[in-house]
Amino acid sequence: MRTLRTVVLVTAPPLFLAVAGLTHPRHLTASTAAHWTALHVALLPAFPLLALGLLVPLWGRPSYDLDGALTVVAWAGCLGYAAYYSGLDAVAGISAGTIAGHGVHEAVGRLFSTGDELGRAGVYALTVAAIAAGTVLLRRHGVRVLPGAVVVLGACWSFLDSHIFWPRGVFTMFAFAVGFGLLSVAASGRSGRLTNP
Fold it and tell me: N or C, where is the chain less crowded by C-beta within 10 Å?
């Protein structure tokens, strides 16, 4: 039962984002600006929750060894993702949508450019977190974490330029859900680490 709750916890944010991606306007225009802005305001707290997929399987106090150091790197990467991707959402989502709705189209390109830089930094941080978390989980639980880790890394690669736009962004969020679910199930089993008798 605990594993099921964990899987629900880590898959809910990417699944929610995938559904939101189905309604995300493909282009920002004067006619889509209000929907664009409202959607990004609603999603502002949702994007950081994507990091739960890496944080939950690592839950607990880090040890004072390589695993502990990598756990801290994963935490830092998740924090960096949450901060910088929220910046993308605020700048290219809320700000660009707001000014596009008021006919100030000259600044939209600059906001998109700045937002894209913030988003890329956030996804790079999430990728570092995924590599660090995958390494810790591999050391703790063995090769059974590899399918989830590989799917999450593939989703990170796609996330660099897909956001949640249909179709690729929606499938990217589904990939995160699958990868996080696989990692959580693999991490819920007994440790695969060899110990001295």
Answer: C
Mean pLDDT of 178-196: 77
Q: Look up the pTM and report it.
A: 0.92
Element (H or E) spanning 172, and its range? helix 168-188
Q: Is the dihedral of CA 140, 144, 149, 152 positive or negative?
A: negative
What residue ranges do the domains of the chain occupy?
2-188
- A 10 A CB-CB count for 114 gives 16
Residue with tokens 């309604």: 23
| Three-class secondary structure of residue 167 per DSSP | coil
Q: Which two tokens stand for residue 49?
A: 């929750």
Percent of the chain past pLDDT 90, that is, above it, reads: 83
pLDDT tens-digit profile of 22-64? 999 999 988 999 999 999 999 999 999 999 999 999 987 778 8
**Inter-residue contact 137 to 187 (CB < 8 Å):** yes
CA angle, 10 then 13 then 15, to 5°? 100
Tokens representing residue 163 in the block: 């956001």
